[in-house]
Write a structure and sequence with these properties.
Helices cover 43% and strands 19% of the residues. The protein is built from ten helices and eight strands. The chain is globular. The protein has 253 residues and is an alpha+beta fold. β4 and β5 form a beta hairpin. The two termini are 19 Å apart.
């Protein structure tokens, strides 16, 4: 059994969070596995098993998440480029891994969060509010990074173009060098702008798959979503879903 639920964040966190979410996994003797694709986001997850609280950094490839027994999770998903306000380190250090909140926030705050979430029976809604209270506390204590404006502007431009924006064009539009843009992007977002744009474009196609016919014209899909040709679309599906577009579409149906 796998039960996943998203809810909008409180008003004060909406500039920073995409959503808060809960997940309850009940696996039997056979572990339950599901695949998570790169989504240009960073999440904080708090789990009842061994009082685990950690951040999952930017993903550059899909991962298989395997659960065994009963696992309860309450989590927050940051908007692209917004997590820098909550972690005082270059976000590229979190990429493709999970980092214990004790390292990021200190043992005392992480322990208080775990105690508040798991020492007594609570509803999912109550746990989501507790996590958001801790994020608001972190928000008040941390100043906005001076360089975050450039990265956030670049993120918005890439997302508005669904990834179909050349990095040279983006740097010229922002009146900075490609090197400066790449450095600020890795520090404030996590990955470089070119990879971020590729994942943004892939996500746009992936989100549209349910509207495609079983025998989709992938060359036409590639052109519609800004790919140079069909082979580039296939390459991105292999990198970010570990499957061809046809195989991935069949799995989604």
């Amino acid at each position: 059994m796998f039960v996943y639920q998203e809810t909008p964040p409180v008003v004060a966190l909406r500039p920073w969070l995409d959503c808060v979410w809960t997940c309850r996994v009940q696996a039997g003797a056979t572990p339950l596995a599901h695949q998570v694709l790169p989504d240009n986001c960073i999440d904080i997850l708090c789990q009842d098993q061994q009082d685990a609280s950690f951040a999952v950094g930017m993903m550059t490839a899909p991962i298989q998440v395997v659960s065994q027994g009963l696992v309860q999770t309450v989590a927050a998903r940051f908007k692209p480029g917004a997590a820098a306000r909550f972690f005082q380190l270059p976000l590229c250090e979190l990429n493709d891994g999970r980092t214990d909140l004790r390292q990021l926030w200190g043992r005392e705050l992480a322990a208080h969060l775990g105690d508040a979430l798991w020492t007594q029976p609570l509803s999912d809604a109550q746990r989501m509010h507790i996590l958001q209270d801790f994020l608001l506390l972190r928000l008040r204590k941390n100043p906005l990074p001076a360089a975050s404006g450039l990265a956030l502007h670049a993120v918005a431009l890439i997302d508005n173009a669904r990834g179909g924006l050349r990095i040279e064009q983006l740097a010229a539009q922002l009146n900075v060098s490609r090197q400066h843009l790449a450095l600020q992007f890795r520090q404030q977002v996590g990955i470089g702008p070119k990879l971020f744009a590729r994942i943004s474009r892939f996500r746009a196609v992936n989100n549209a798959l349910k509207t495609l016919p079983a025998q989709a014209d992938w060359a036409q899909v590639a052109l519609q979503y800004g790919y140079f040709d069909q082979s580039h679309l296939i390459h991105d599906f292999q990198d970010f879903a570990h499957a061809s577009p046809e195989a991935w579409l069949a799995q989604r149906r």
